[in-house]
Amino acid sequence: MSRLPMLPAEPDDPALAALFAEVRARGWQVPNLYRVLGHAPRMLRAWLDFAWPLRLDVQASRGIRELLILRGAQVCGSRYEWAHHVPMALAAGVPQAQVDALNDEWRNSALFSAPEKAVLRLADEVTRGPGASAECIAALGQQGFSDTEITELTLTASFYVCVSRFLHSMDVPLEDEYRHG
Question: Of 4, 19, 51, 62, which has the most beta carbons under 10 Å away?
């Protein structure tokens, strides 16, 4: 159970109702995460304005970003993020075998390309903290990622650490439809 009350998916507050309607208009259900963040509608607005461009308006491929997010979720122990992003990763073309191999052995796995391993290293370093090393950032460039992509990937890894910390702090429950396995 969440440490703050879960707000209804159809809230009375007009500002919050408009935000939730915006989420639904994108074809998504209102996740429990937003039903807790909604206690501060202006913060939820800022969250959406940052999260959606990271997800939808970047140069780095969706598949590589989903690998990054999944590895960060693993390192943080965030079942919520993992459950939400496995379907997104698969939809983005990440093979199930790669999802299954995302553990501490990814460094030696032939399933991941050198660019993917550079991104997974970024996920590990940012998530474990305090941040990515100079060598890690240089390795991304050496693997062909542009400065824009390196920025996007680093922001994505950093943002999802924030997501995980908030989920854990508020003990946000996983939605029923994600409770398989």
Answer: 19
